[in-house]
Structure formats: C-alpha cells, structure tokens
Amino acid sequence: MLETVTALLIATIIAATPLLLAATGELVAEKSGVLNLGVEGMMLVGAVSGFIGVQVTGSGTLGIVAAALAGALMALVFAFLTLGLKANQVATGLALTLFGIGLSALMGKDFVGTPHDRLPQLAVPGLSDLPVIGPLLFGHDALVYLALALVAAVHWFLYHTRRGLVLRAVGENHDAAHAIGYPVLRIRLMATLFGGAMSGLGGAYLSLAYTPQWAENMTAGRGWIALALVVFATWKPGRVLVGAWLFGGVTLGQLYGQGLGIPVPSQFMAMLPYLATVLVLVAISRDRVRIRLNAPACIGKTFHPAA
Question: Does residue 141 sit in helix, strand or coil?
C-alpha cells in the first residue's frame, strides 16, 4: 500500500511539471501586464525543438537549451506584434498557438516515432535509497528540480526585490510607471521572453522525460490548462505549485482509471482534466472581488507611450 501511494505521488509530481513550468512563465508575463494565449503553441515548438536537439547532438542539456530558446523566439514574435506593432494580445496569442501547432508538425515530421532515452534521474547517494522519502524527493530528473527552484525564485523576485516591484508596478499601472521613468516596453519584453522560455521548457519535459518521443499535438491542451492555472492561483507563485499538483493528480487519475478498467467510457476519463479546469474556472469566476484584487490591472491592455 505504501509503495502504491509513493508511486502515485511521484507520478503526480511528474505529470505536474510541464504545467508548473509553463504556468510560472505565464504568471510573470501576466504580472507585467502581458496576456499571452500562445502558451500551447510555444510548448509544442519547445517540445519538438528539444527533441530534435537531443537527436542531433545526443545531449539532453543542449536539447533543454534548444527548447528554451525556441519558446523564447516564439514569444519574441508575439512581443514584436503586440508590444511593437500594438496588435491585440488575445487575437495574437490565439494566432501564435495555431502557428505553433503547424510549425511543430512541420519541424517534427521526420522524427515521429523516433525513440530516445528519457532524461536521467539525479540520484543522490545515500538519500535516493531511503524508503518513501528517497524516491519521492531524490529520484527525479533535472527539469523537475528546476521547476521547483524557479517557483521559489519567481516568488522571491516578485515580492522581495526592487525589480520585481517595478515589474508588478508596470502590470498595475503602466502609465504611472512610464511617468516616473521606467521602460515599460522593455520590462514587458523581458517578461514575455521569460514566459516563452518557460513554456518551451514545459514542452521539452513532455518530449524528453514524460513520454520520450515526438508526436504531433503531444501537449494535448496542457498550454490551456497552464493559462487557467494562473487564474486559479490568483497570480501567486506558491498557489501555482499547489494548482499544478492538483491538475497533475487529476490527469494521473484518468490514466489510472483507464488502466484499472473502471466501467466508464474512455472518452469521459480522457476529458476529466479539462472538465476539472472548466469547473475550477467557473468556481473562481464567482468571486469577482478576489480576481479584481489580485489580477494585474493593466493585463492585456496596449501601452501607448506619451509623445
């Protein structure tokens, strides 16, 4: 029984990692006032770029770097259109997702079904062999630990540094921030690029560790769940971590349910993570005061600097 519970917890952490990476990056972007709905597309391009990087170089590290750069480049396209050309952020984000779906399919058409070894686990001598705690805390790959470290780093940056305060100020009132001399567009550009890189890492985790292969549309809507997760967490990094584990557990639950042969249509089991996402968003939307108090006031709004 204990082994089963431990295995379920480990699997939940693994399933939550791509959501955690993408949602943490999107949280930073939204804190600066940028709403990027292209997370799904950036994750897909990151997934295929990371996979190709490993296949070409044989290095998992270079594959991870390639995925982060690919996600950042996709975010740069979004930033050019929305921050530079003042395009609508919602429409541009949706277009970025469609572009990412097609681009990733084109890039990965020669790599479909090609196997490779998953990212190695970072075992700690003397600790990884401990019962329960060992495999639960000291038996994961580098991206799992990176995701957890980045959540802590983002929390520290946003709430304990001057630059984090400036970023939040830009998201709350870009006109006031500009009036006292802060480079609003530059800050939003950097936040958007960070969000893109994190989405790329989330995609890379899927193709390099979660299911080490490339398949078209392998994100299966996780980018949209990551977007919902930011709202669920009311734009707080710590709550993003809890929410990612929650949604990871729901995703895992439907897989275990299918494996156990529960007499429920497989289509219903497969839609559980997305049904949970909708229900959570409906529940959150009823508390409009909390959303109004926590959401960045300028999110999704175009900044027009005074002449």
Answer: strand
Encoded tokens for 167: 């970023």
Is residue 182 in a domain? Answer: yes
What sections of the chain are H helices per DSSP? Answer: 2-31, 39-57, 60-79, 89-107, 133-138, 142-160, 162-172, 174-179, 184-205, 222-232, 237-259, 266-270, 272-285, 288-294
Q: Is the pLDDT of residue 304 over 80?
A: yes
Structure tokens at 114: 């090609």
Q: What is the CATH number of the domain that holds 249?
A: 1.10.3470
307 pLDDT exceeds 60? Answer: no
Give residues with Cβ within 8 angstroms of 139, minimum separation 6: 10, 121, 123, 128
Q: What is the mean pLDDT of residues 21-29?
A: 97
CB count in 10 Å sphere of residue 99: 19
For 278, the domain range is: 2-114+122-294
Amino acid at 285: S
Q: Would you state the pLDDT for residue 253?
A: 67
Nearest to 168 by CA among 235, 93, 75, 232: 235
Q: Is the pTM of this model over 0.85?
A: yes
Q: Does any domain span residue 300?
A: no
Amino acid identity at 222: R
Domain total in the chain: 1
Is 44 within 8 Å of 218 (Cβ atoms)? yes
Residue 86 Ramachandran class (φ > 0 left, ψ -120 to 50 alpha, else beta): left
And the tokens for 293?
């108090």
pLDDT tens digits, residue range 220-269?
Answer: 889 999 998 998 888 999 999 988 988 888 777 666 665 666 666 766 66
Reported as a single tens digit per residue, the pLDDT across 126-156 is 667 677 777 778 878 899 999 999 999 999 9
